[in-house]
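Review form for a predicted model. The reviewer records the input and the model, then writes brief findings.
Reviewer: anonymous (R2)
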Amino acid sequence: MAAHLTIPLAPWLLLFVPLLLLLLRVVSRGTDKSRRQLKRLPASPRGLPVIGHLHLIGDLPHVSLRDLAAKHDHTNGLMLVRLGTVPNLIVSTPHAAQAVLRTHDHIFASRPPSTIVDDLQYGPSSNFGAAPYGEHWRQVRKLVTTHLLTTKKVNSYHLARQEEVCLVMAKLRNAAAVGMEVDISEMVNTFTNDVVCRAVSGKFFRVEGRNKLFRELIEVNSVLSAGFCLENYFPGRLAMLLGMFTRFMRNKAAVAHKRWDELLENIICDHERRRFKHSAESAEQEQSADFIDVMLSVQEGYGITRDNIKAILMVRHIRCGNQYISFGT
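Model under review:
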């Protein structure tokens, strides 16, 4: 004779069905919200798992992105590509550029974090070039626009620019006199570097071959900053797993940073000794003061540290380096 076993229904099971229905409702709402958000995203090419659209970027990234935008962007001048796990917004029309750079500039003001750039340039807290948008960035921008790049200050370097042009013309005359070939790209690169070095660090920038060291370090920075770094495309835990592949780049950045720091520290110390020796500067000397003199004079008022000064100087030289690379290509 079969026995019928009756199992009493536990009280907590009475709550299971309502909780399950509530959970399904929440998940459904989240899925609907995600779908609505996806619908609002710009057009995007078909990507691959993990690497996203990295396989679509060729040796000339700007050409690859132009071709992708022409193929996939048919509406508002915006396209979304994922380089690894990092989303990137591609702007391809003047109207879209105005919306990004003017209308919503505060949203796009911060640059994406880069461990290599941080290793090169005193970290995100001191680095002005890649610092996140905030109070520190606004203070340094105010310092640069108010004291370093004013029309009066730029015009004060007119004589220095004339002297550097005269040096270039003298080299050309000497080369022409003996019928020697001249590498114009190299000469323009040297001129650009020397003009910026003189404005940033003063007329003694050629002491101990510092101008040549500046050029060498600028090239190193350009290669490291523009090079392929896995951490820039796979941040977070995945970057930790791939750390063995990025350690080499970070070690090179650390070596370059040490060389930059020694060079900038020596130049700043030279300026401090001259300021101490000539504490009562004339109006003419003050007018011809270089970037380092200016920043040392306003250091306390703006609350900037020595590393802040070095980071600003490095950014100015790297901007010169961008011109250096563009002239040489």
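Findings: Residues 55-108 form one domain.
Further findings: The chain has two domains: 55-108, 125-328.
Recommendation: see findings above.
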